[in-house]
UniProtKB/TrEMBL annotation:
SUPFAM superfamilies: FabD/lysophospholipase-like. GO terms for biological process: lipid catabolic process. It holds the Pfam family Patatin. This is Patatin-like phospholipase family protein. The active site is at S40, D212. InterPro entries: Acyl_Trfase/lysoPLipase (IPR016035), NTE (IPR050301), PNPLA_dom (IPR002641). A motif (DGA/G) lies at residues 212-214. PROSITE patterns: PNPLA (PS51635). Keywords: Hydrolase, Lipid degradation, Lipid metabolism. GO terms for molecular function: hydrolase activity.
Length: 373
């Protein structure tokens, strides 16, 4: 089985993954993927792809001809809006609405409408899409899919009719301002799983307090590691940077909290990435990993007699990798730079690590794009 993991990272991740998906599609691989997993900003694009999957028109070459109209254009419009500031301020102004409620409303208004998890492809009608969130109550990963909602302490809730906007909001509810997303479900609809040590707690089965899936696993690899022998990973998590002004954080509880979360997230991501690369090297799995901070010259393309990468490492690509982790407006120039970088990284990784027979593309999606910020 072939799986693709789409990491978190706000709109930066959504845009980087657009580039990755465009290259995967042009390689004829999109329709061959069995499992999509996603976190946070990756879930924004995964949900759109899953919702529109039945409408994609695949040619004899395996390339979806209308991916731009169904996926790229709506997501670029969405990433051209500032979402986070409005929902946070709205939650502060109104004592009756939490920012997460407004976040759900934005997802519903601009992308997913009234669709639910049942509108994602069924097991027999296309690939499986799994969106991850994190339980603030148990600390465990929470899985949203067409087939079930699951949390291993509680069990499984089959055929969930949960709005797609809620699932994506939960997956991208970055702490502390955007979480929790409070989800109420039928406590009697759960079935026990292999562990389910908290299944007997009816309050936990009825009331789920959820936050960004990246708190638990910013790559969303758990399911793919278990089921897939071939794994592709598009990682748009920001490269960890040295903070020479950390002394100033003593004046801001929010800054201290954010820095602490960044360190914890980086360690979890590093451990999962190292384990995945170990599996690639040992032959346990095959596949390719590319990240927004990957040194693209490390992919041995020319050494293997292949056409070189579409972009070169530069101060410009380092600026692209360092773009903000926000749900705010990305300019057209920023969007095109991120999409180009995702496309170039995916291309280099796929040809160097996954399938050297793939033809090299002639151009980037936006050849004239420059990054600013």
């Amino acid at each position: 089985m072939l799986g693709l993991a789409l990491s978190g990272g706000g709109f930066r991740a959504t845009l980087f993954h657009i580039g990755s998906l465009q290259r995967i599609n042009e390689a004829g691989l999109l329709g061959r993927i069995d499992e999509f997993t996603s976190v946070s900003g990756g879930s924004i694009i995964a949900a759109q792809l899953g919702l529109r999957w039945p409408e994609l028109v695949f040619g004899a070459d395996g390339i979806a001809k209308n991916i731009h109209e169904l996926i790229v254009e709506p997501l670029r419009l969405f990433c051209g809006r500032t979402i986070d500031v409005g929902v946070i301020l709205g939650g502060i102004i109104s004592p009756f609405r939490h920012p997460s409620d407004l976040l759900i409303g934005n997802h519903r208004k601009y992308l997913y409408g009234n669709s639910t998890l049942q509108d994602l492809p069924a097991r027999t009608g296309g690939p499986r899409f799994t969106l991850y969130a994190t339980s603030l109550q148990t600390g465990a990963s929470v899985v949203f899919s067409h087939e079930y909602l699951s949390e291993y302490h509680l069990g499984r809730l089959p055929d969930p009719d949960i709005p797609l906007a809620v699932a994506v909001a939960a997956s991208s509810a970055f702490p502390p301002p955007l979480c929790p997303v409070k989800l109420r479900v039928d406590p009697d609809a759960w079935s026990r799983g292999n562990i389910s040590d908290l299944h007997g707690d009816s309050y936990l089965r009825e009331n789920l307090w959820l936050a960004d899936g990246g708190i638990y696993d910013n790559l969303g690899l758990e399911r793919l590691n278990r089921l897939c022998d071939r794994i592709l990973v598009s990682d748009a998590g920001a490269p960890f940077s040295v903070d020479r002004k950390v002394r100033l954080a003593r004046f801001s509880q929010l800054a201290r909290t954010k820095r602490t979360l960044d360190i914890m997230s980086e360690q979890v991501r590093a451990l999962r990435t190292r384990d995945l690369i170990r599996q690639f090297v040992s032959g346990e799995k095959s596949g390719a990993y590319w990240g927004i901070g990957t040194v693209i010259s490390d992919f041995p393309l020319e050494e293997r007699g292949l056409v070189g990468a579409l972009m070169a490492d530069s101060e410009e690509t380092r600026r692209i990798a360092a773009m903000r982790t926000r749900l705010n407006r990305f300019s057209a120039e920023e969007q095109e730079a991120l999409i180009n970088w995702g496309y170039a990284q995916a291309d280099a990784a796929l040809r160097a690590r996954f399938d050297p027979s793939l033809a090299a593309p002639e151009r980037l999606p936006y050849p004239d794009a420059q990054a600013h910020g």
